[in-house]
């Protein structure tokens, strides 16, 4: 992979863009409007990235990061992302962003809800449980015992492998959590979302979350 397309020119999108540029990726970034609308922002906040329309940024990308405000996720055209490997870096965080019916009236995880909308995309949940200000600061080379780990979840193993490569190049140890539903382990409100973990620590936290989920399921039965 050489080219990253980022949908969203806010704090998360621009932070991912800078980190990817440092890692050697070509980065194209888009917002909801014309490329000219974010050209100056891109030049100042992500020097080296190219402002494009969403259609052009996706078409040229090997991998796409969706980092729009979650309440605008339906503004992302599903056909645009059909067949693309897509990282869902968004979070449903009701205490901060307010309640949203799409995520309240369902037992699905937030990324499963996103996957229903982006039904043709090869969706991977990741990059959501590290602060935008931390992404550039916490990176360490592979093999460093203090290297932070980031979890990912997907129903597409090949897509997950591509995202794992990105995470490693960004300076983090990728840890596969399991299918997309496993993304519940690192949504807001979890121990993983609220802290920084090495790979062994993250693996332990994921296992602990699975055990707790299984125990709750047995109680319901």
Describe the structure.
By secondary structure, the chain is of the alpha/beta class. It has one domain (3-220): Rossmann fold, CATH 3.40.50.720. It has helices at 11-22, 39-45, 54-59, 94-97, 101-104, 110-117, 157-170, 199-220; strands at 3-7, 26-30, 50-51, 63-66, 85-88, 122-125, 149-154, 173-178. It has an 8-stranded mixed beta sheet, sandwiched between helices. Helix 7 links the parallel strand 7 (149-154) and strand 8 (173-178). It is globular and about 55 Å long.
Briefly, what CATH class?
Alpha Beta
Helical amount:
25-40%
Which sheet architecture does the biggest sheet show? 8 strands, mixed
- Structure annotation, total helices: 8
Domain module count: 1
Strand order, largest beta sheet: 3-2-1-4-5-6-7-8
Which structural category fits the helices and strands?
alpha/beta
The CATH architecture classification is: 3-Layer(aba) Sandwich
| End-to-end gap | 45 Å
The residue-averaged pLDDT reads: 94
Q: How would you sum up the global shape?
A: globular
What fraction of residues sit in β-strands? 15-25%
- Can you tell me the CATH topology? Rossmann fold
Radius of gyration: 17 Å
CATH superfamily: NAD(P)-binding Rossmann-like Domain
């Amino acid at each position: 992979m050489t080219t990253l397309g980022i949908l969203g020119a806010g704090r998360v999108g621009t932070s991912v863009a800078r980190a990817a540029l440092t890692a050697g990726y070509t980065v194209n970034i888009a917002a909801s409007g014309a490329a000219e609308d974010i050209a100056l922002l891109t030049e100042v906040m992500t020097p080296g990235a190219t402002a494009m329309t969403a259609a052009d940024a996706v078409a040229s990308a090997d991998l796409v990061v969706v980092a729009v405000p979650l309440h605008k996720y339906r503004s992302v055209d599903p056909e645009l992302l059909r067949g693309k490997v897509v990282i869902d870096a968004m979070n449903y965080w009701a205490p901060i962003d307010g309640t949203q019916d799409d995520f309240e009236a369902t037992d699905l995880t937030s990324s499963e809800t996103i996957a229903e909308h982006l039904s043709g995309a090869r969706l991977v949940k990741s990059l959501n449980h590290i602060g935008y200000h931390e992404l550039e600061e916490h990176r360490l080379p592979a093999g460093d015992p203090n290297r932070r780990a980031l979890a990912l979840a997907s129903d597409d193993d090949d897509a997950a492998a591509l995202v794992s490569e990105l995470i490693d190049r960004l300076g983090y140890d990728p840890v596969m959590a399991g299918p997309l539903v496993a993304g519940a382990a690192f949504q807001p409100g979890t121990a993983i979302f609220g802290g920084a973990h090495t790979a062994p620590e993250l693996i332990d936290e994921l296992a602990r979350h699975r055990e707790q989920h299984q125990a709750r399921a047995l109680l319901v039965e």
